[in-house]
Every structure is written in C-alpha cells, then in structure tokens.
Amino acid sequence: MTETEFEDAFATLGASLLRYCAFRTGSHADGEDLAEETLARLFARLDRVDCTICDRWAFRVAHNLCTDHLRRARRRVLVADVPERETRDGRAWLDPDVEQALRKLSASDQRVVFLRAIEDLPFDRIAELDGRKTATVRMRYHRAMKTLRQGLTEASAQ
Fold it and tell me: Whole-structure pTM over 0.90, yes or no?
C-alpha cells in the first residue's frame, strides 16, 4: 500500500471506524482513541497490507482493539463507579433501551447490526468485511434483530 492509498483509505475509513469504535465502547472519546490506533497500525504496515482489503483488515483490527478495551474496562468497572452516559452533540447517541438490548448480543452480531442498521452497508459488503458468505450475514442480522425486538418488548413490558 502506498501513502496515497493510505490517504484514500483514511478519508473513506476514518469516520466509519470512529463510529464503529464509539458504538462498541459506548464512548466517543474511547472510540476516537481506538480508531486512531487502528489507523496508526495500518500506517505502520503500509508495506504489508494489500490495499484491496485494507478496509476489511482495518475493521478486524478495530474489532480486536475494542474487544481488548472492553475486557480491560470490565475489570476496572468492578471497582470504580460507572460514569455518566456520554452524549454526542448533547444528545444521547442511542436510546438506552436499544443500547441495553444491543449489549446483550454477541460482539459479532453487534458488528453486523452496526454495519447494516447504522452504517447502512449492503449485506454483500458486510460479508466481504467479515469474510463470510452473504447468506450467513443475512441470517445473523435477522436473528440479531429478532433478539433485539424481543429484548425491547420485554423492556417495555416492565
């Protein structure tokens, strides 16, 4: 990958990686840090990353960084108070009931829901990013949405 290809990747991936990392961590500040770390790793490996799959590579790295971050955060939360919910532009990023229902999904299902429902990517593009078949991604998305609907129905009944 050349520096020009990296600049193109940065322009197209930067905002999506930020939204994905902020979504996964629940914090815009942590999302910025993790997205920047992902792009820094991409830049450090310019000579070894194929530009045709750099977005797939970047989302996988971001996914792994978020998972590691959440594991470390879970250990810290056991002792510390939970901070107030962060907002973006003074508004809550997601409805608290939706966010709670999303957090009950597996990380892989959260990713599929995020990329389809929030980033509005087509199923074939999500399948390409995840290295899965399109039919598998469709099935995971529809099952995750069914689980979300059930969780929201239960939350509204309480």
Answer: no
